[in-house]
Amino acid sequence: MKFKLSFSSQIKLMNLIMEVIEGFIKSYGIDTEKNWKIFLALREILTNSIIHGNREDPDKMVHIEAEINEAITFTVKDQGEKFDFYSYKEIPKNLLAQRGRGIYLAHQIMDEIIYEFNNGNIITMKKRL
């Protein structure tokens, strides 16, 4: 089962986007309360795509694709510039800082994360169910 959604890079849309995605996941019998960490990882990556990738430019889009089988796989694409994604895999030096923990958290929560660049940043995350 696949789900695709594209939205403007406006942080004010985040709660609505997460509700839509959670509704899709619930419709396949997956307990979103039990799997709340997956949604935390997704929210962090989507937020990074909006703020850092697309610089909150409402004319730039964030694209998300979700697939459910033996795992939940999310692919998030923005229109941002390439960056050193894997340098954020390690624990941040300042855990109390307001920024800099999202990619680290996603790495801790998800079973697999792949970064690629192709006319934008593409992050694919997988969590086995």
- CATH topology name, in short, is Heat Shock Protein 90
Tally of discrete structural domains: 1
Q: Which sequence of strands runs across the widest sheet?
A: 1-2-3-5-4
Strand content: 25-35%
Low-pLDDT sequence parts: none
Distance between the termini: 14 Å
Helix content: 25-40%
CATH class reads Alpha Beta
Q: What does it look like?
A:
- This protein is an alpha+beta fold.
- The chain has three helices and five strands.
- A five-stranded antiparallel β-sheet has the order 1-2-3-5-4, covered by helices on one side.
- Strand 4 and strand 5 form a beta hairpin.
- Helix 2 packs antiparallel against helix 3.
- The protein is globular.
SSE arrangement:
Layout: E1 2-8, H1 14-26, H2 36-53, E2 61-68, E3 71-77, H3 102-109, E4 112-117, E5 121-128
Antiparallel strand pairs: 1-2, 2-3, 3-5, 4-5
Helix pairs in contact: 2-3
Structure keywords:
129 residues; alpha+beta; Heat Shock Protein 90
Provide a short characterization of the protein structure:
This protein has 129 residues and is α+β, with helices and mostly antiparallel strands.
